[in-house]
Amino acid sequence: MMRWIGVLVMAWAACGGGDRVPVAAPRSEPAVPVAQPAPAPTPPAPTTPVLPDTPAGKTLAAWLDAFNSGDQARLEAFVAQHKFPRTAGEMMMFRNQTGGFELVAIEKTEPLALTFVVKEKTGTTKAVGWIKVKAGEPAEITFFDVLAIPPNLTAADVNVSIDAAARTRVIDGAIAKLTESYVYPETAKKMVQALRDHQKQGAYDAVTEAPALAALLTEHLQAVSHDRHLRVGFMPEKLPEIEQEPTDQEKADYKAELEKMNCGFEKVETLDGNIGYIKFNMFADAEICGAKATAAFGSLGNVDAVIFDLRDNGGGQPDMVAFVSSYLFAKRTHLNDLYDRKENKTTQYWTKPGVPGAKLAKQPVYVLTSSRTFSGAEEFSYNLKNLKRATIVGETTGGGAHPTMGRRIDDHFMIAVPFARAINPITKTNWEGTGVKPDVQVPAAEALDKAKQLAAEAIAKRKKSKP
């Protein structure tokens, strides 16, 4: 799982301490009064910067109000009114992780653009943000990003300007990586031509912010490929020059970050009617997080049906998809295949027969989906649907079936290159571009109630059929 545009998981930092003023020792001869030093003035309380009365300033103020409210309806209204390039669900997840934002500074302001600094409310991490709008009532957001300031770096290290040479280097590097590895060579050629055409037309000449270049290149590549896994990203930290194994410390930090998020498991409970409910928002590394899945199933006990809530699940690792699926089948079952274009090799994924704990191999299964359900979460849904092991309830999913590989372009730019494609053993195809269509289509907000109704009906029918 990679962190790309935006901050979906903020880094945590802590600091403390302060200056101690030495106190003079008492004197033994008090014949002459000694003037006492005046108390040190109390530093003024920090003030919140005032946003300018411009289209960009007003729009950022509206976003901060909606984001900090934690109100899904307000975020949905903001997204619709300003054509915000994120879903309300993504913003809710982001808000839950940060606790909201306090505006710290305004770095640059123009009528239709702002660069700003914010601090998360639940920690000390600061982040640099950019917003660009198209004038209107209300203004339409054309670019928005918030990027955490890594430890030992400053806002200036994140808010870097790029020149013509840097733009050319990034474009040439992206083209080389796509040509080498993109899953469909013919589509790669079309994307290369599109970037060259945009370059000749001067589409990148006025782009001076690094994240804005990454976003624009992503937009142009996706316009040709319609591949939502394909992204260019800017990273403030200097990237290693060669691909290498992570250090022990990096592995420990990665594990700690996943554990802090409880591996994406948000809620596990038994609902009325003895219906199990598991909501999780990622398919994290199975070696680290498999135990969380085992604990989730174990805590449900002997439920009569189970509901998986994947409405906010953005995907993850194929091995974790197979691990979780293994609890739903009595026998070893073929789930999915991945074809690697560069290696010309197909890897099969099957359920794992030796998972610990009790299985739910006979109980009815319901999977809740939304338009935000993506990638590995779509594979889970697609596999179970075609194996007739689950009823999918909700909305058509996002439509991303291509595993990606992060490739270095230069010290600070990377490109996520889809290098393989899923091949379902039953359909011989996948959900790329189409998404997984639900068996029972309802708005995502109504999916849980509908699934509970269906589960109750199925449980009643099974009990009635027993002698």
Notes on the structure:
The protein has 467 residues and is an alpha/beta fold. Helix content is 34%, strand content 21%. The chain contains twelve helices and 16 strands. It has helices at residues 55-69, 72-82, 88-98, 155-158, 164-181, 185-200, 210-225, 248-260, 286-300, 318-325, 376-386, 447-465; strands spanning 101-110, 113-120, 126-134, 140-148, 231-234, 265-271, 275-280, 305-309, 334-340, 345-350, 365-369, 391-394, 404-408, 413-418, 420-423, 440-441. A six-stranded mixed sheet has the order 6-7-8-11-12-16, sandwiched between helices. Strand 1 (101-110) and strand 2 form a beta hairpin. Helix 1 runs antiparallel to helix 2, helix 2 crosses helix 3 and helix 9 (286-300) runs parallel beside helix 10 (318-325). It is globular, with a radius of gyration of 26 Å.
Tell me the Rg in angstroms: 26 Å
Alpha plus pi helix count: 12
How much beta, percentage-wise?
Answer: 15-25%
- Give, in spatial order, the strands making up the sheet with the most strands: 6-7-8-11-12-16
Total number of beta strands: 16
Profile the largest sheet. Answer: 6 strands, mixed
Amino-to-carboxy terminus distance? 49 Å
Uncertain stretches of 5 or more adjacent residues: 1-36
Helix content: 25-40%
Give the helices and strands as they follow along the chain.
HHHEEEEHHHHEHEEHEHEEEHEEEEEH
Shape: globular
Structural class: alpha/beta
- Mean pLDDT metric: 88
Short description:
With 467 residues, the chain is of the alpha/beta class. Helix content is 34%, strand content 21%. The longest helix has 19 residues, at 447-465.
